[in-house]
Amino acid sequence: MPYTLICLDKPGALEIRKANRDAHLAYIAETGAVEQAGPFLDPQGQMIGSLVILSVETEEQAAEWAAGDPYAKAGLFDSVQVMHWNRVIG
Q1: Which of 49, 51, 61, 72 has its CA 20 to 30 A from that of 10?
Q2: In angstroms, rounded to a whole number, what is the distance separating the alpha carbons of residues 27 and 2?
Q3: 69 near 62, Cβ under 8 Å?
Q4: Radius of gyration, CA atoms only, the chain
Q5: How far is CA 52 from CA 4, 16, 38, in A?
Q6: Are the beta carbons of 71 and 24 closer than 8 angstroms?
Q7: Helices then strands (H, E): number in the chain?
Q8: What are the backbone dihedrals phi and psi of residue 14, each rounded to the nearest 5 degrees, phi first?
Q9: Max Cα–Cα distance, the chain, nearest Å
Q10: What would the pLDDT profile of 6-60 be if each residue is shown by its tens digit?
């Protein structure tokens, strides 16, 4: 089942994001649960959050994945929403 994570960074946290990006990408690769992902950008093109689409069975698994993300562990996010998603196109 697809679940989405809508993660918004804390204001001024770009350096935390940059410092933890390699660990975040390694986590994505090692867990194998991510179908699609990418950053949200501000008008200047700077990363300010993330959209992650996970393939997991339960909301609890999605929340566990989110909690294990190196970005979350580093305190990057101001908020994280876990939502069940119904794929209609794609």
Answers
A1: 61
A2: 18
A3: no
A4: 13
A5: 6, 18, 7
A6: yes
A7: 3, 4
A8: -55, -40
A9: 37
A10: 999 999 999 999 999 999 999 999 999 999 999 999 999 999 999 999 999 999 9
